[in-house]
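Our working data are protein records whose layout never changes between entries. The record below serves as our worked example for the rest of this section:
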Amino acid sequence: GSMNIGRIATAVGPEWVVEEEGMLRRLPGGPFAAAMAPGAVIGPAAGARVLAPCAPSKIVCVGRNYVEHAAEHGADVPERPLLFLKAPSALIGPGEAVVLPEDSQQVEHEAELALVIGRRGRHIAEESAWEHVLGVTCANDVTARDLQRADGQWTRGKGFDTFCPLGPWIVTDLGEAEAADLEISCRVNGELRQHARSSQMVFRPAFLVASISRIMTLEPGDLILTGTPSGVSRLHPGDVVEVEIAGVGRL
């Protein structure tokens, strides 16, 4: 059955948990062990500090994977997935603050569906790609747009600490077809800014897993951010950003 898997802060460090109807259970060995067996109940999820739900070796992102988002930047839709990396040090969990850097005057939100790799793979066939995915979660590919444009390379504009909010939970057992047709939205201070379906992607999730694996080995816990729909907008101090994916959760 489907599980909501995540990580919480404890006195002894991050701990893997499963969320069930508002309660948390321990997940000894974490979600990448051969067999996942939820353990003792810890307590209500409401009382826990929920962290980013994985600790990836790399965060692989896809640029311009929605036609209308490419159009709003006056950019062409790529012939093959346009890939870039975000630093794992950019990760933060739900409710944590995105820090707007002094170097940028134009930090923007990008609501995205994130895939969490569950099984190591290289040169994965598209037909079997979904077997390598543990589950999906919500992500915000926060971007300093002015720095991204100034540099040509995107490392600086995408890489600041706090620029990758993720969570709250990794939702397992979503089928490939379900993941390829999810409703994604972003609200800033309650106002809808982005709204689309993952079916509008240029390159579908399973294809992305396969094509990325032709370049680099995908390790358990690695993240693939699948691109953002149109409607990105500037963030200001004090704004509250919510990324919501229907059936997956709200970040």
